[in-house]
Please model this.
Amino acid sequence: MRFKNSLTVILLTLILSACAQGVEPNPTPVVIRDVSQPEVKFDAAQTPSPVPFQFSLPTPGAEPISGWRPPLYPIPWAMSPYDHFYFARPIAADQVNWPIPDYRYGGVFFAPNIVHTGIDIPTPEGTPIMAAGPGTIVWAGWGLFTEAPRNEDDPYGLAVAIRHDFGYKGQQLYTIYAHMSKVFAILDQHVETGDVIGLVGSTGATTGPHVHFEVRFPTNSFFDTYNPELWIAPPQGWGVLVGRVMDTKEKTLQGVEVNLKSVETKKSYVVKTYGGGGAVNRDAYYNENMVLGDLPAGFYKVTVKYDKKTYETWVEIFPGQVTYFTYAGENGFNLVRPPAPTLKSLPEVLPATPTSIP
Ligand SMILES: [Zn+2]
Model:
């Protein structure tokens, strides 16, 4: 290909580099991007054009939201008795509907003592937010965190809570949707999976538009959250890695970086292990302190750094399933799952029980 002059090359380079940025959602916190364009000045010394001129690049539209991703498994999805992908994602399949990778559940980002009790899905302001499962609206509006209706200083902003028609281990399940720009759901309304309950916004404590999504049980309390990546159905053909990272004495480690690298695509994934207690809870079966969801099936190398040494193992991610590992310091990795749960601990369907607003 021959370009007419060097200015064309510069322009093409600018345009191409702008396109290349958009494959993954911006890691968080979602900061509103500066879309003003630098002026490209004509350089008379470089280009023999008789008329010096000046122009600006056109303002681009929204960045491309995604590469193609497979559709999600239907819910409820459970390949094994200890899994519980009961929920659809609160954002439609044709939008970014996956969590910000750098700010997953249990992550500590804004301050040493503020943990993330959910996942953040970064989508443009006004994107419809959908019920992740059937249930009854038990909160709609301001004040979810402070339990003070109409409190516009509430960190959750405009939020919705759903008490689901089904439970888990005989306990009630709830999902939370926060930072909305508009709430459509009303108290006591019954919703089905996919019903639009509001729109994405940036109300409450947030730096940009996203939906903050939580899974809670047995009560609708900030202290009863669980990792949503173990509850939302993965994309078809993709799976989830769950780990329990401990020291040599089998005490769980917090804030340890776990690296994962796909053998096929060479793509890397990083997650930090979380603590337990407080508002962050571990799955009753896996007792995990890290989850990496949305992983294309295939072989991956797992790396943990401990005591200045690097430990590695290889895992296989299976479609629609959880792959589990433990790591125990100098004793390294173990891919044996916890003992199978008893029938008693299997999930069960609960009748919708009318209770008062929590
Ligand atoms: Zn969040």
Q: What stands out?
A: The first strand starts at residue 39 and ends at 41. Confidence is low (pLDDT under 50) at residues 1-53, 349-358. Residues 238-334 form a domain with the Immunoglobulin-like fold (CATH 2.60.40.10). The CA atoms of residues 297 and 317 lie 5 Å apart.
